[in-house]
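Our consortium's second objective concerns turning raw sequence data into structural hypotheses that experimental partners can test. To show how far this objective has progressed, the report includes one record in full. It was chosen at random from the queue rather than selected for favorable results. The single chain below, 151 residues long, was entered without modification.
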Amino acid sequence: TSLAGGSMHQWFSTATVDVHVTWDPSDVRNGGTHGLLGIQPLQGNSFTGRDGVKWQCVVGAPLGVYGAQEDQWESVRSTGTSNRPRWRGPGATFDICLEARDSEPKDSKVSQAVGLLETQGHRLTRLAKRTAALEERSTSLMEQSSETKKP
C-alpha cells in the first residue's frame, strides 16, 4: 500500500512528506488482526530552510489501550535539497495488534492479560523467524569466507 502525505507539526505550514506504508498481517481471527506496520518516509515537499539543512523524520505509532503509549522511530539525516529532502533506509516497523471489541462487557483484566500474552507470543514467533534468517545468512557468510581463505 502506498500513501502520499502525512501528519506534520503545525509549524511546518504547507510541507508534506511522501511515505510508503505496508501492513503485513501474521494472524487474522475473531474480527481482529496482528501484524507489522511499516512506515518509510520517502521525500519531503515544500520544506523551508536555508541551503544545506538536513532533516530528520520521527514516526510515531499509538500503542496500548486507547493509544495511551507511543512507540517512535527516528530516521537518519536526509539527503537531497533543504526544501525537498529524501530519506533512505528501511523505515519504521511497528508490531501492531488490532482487536475487535464485543458490545458485551468482559472481565477487562483477564482480556488484557490474554491480549498481552498473545501479543508477546506473536513477537516471540517473529523474533525466532528473524533469528533463524540471521543465522542462515551468518552461516552462508562464514562458509564463503572459509572458501576464499583456502589456497
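The partners drew two points from this record. Helices lie at 108-149. The CA atoms of residues 32 and 99 lie 4 Å apart. Both points have been shared with the crystallography group to help prioritize constructs.
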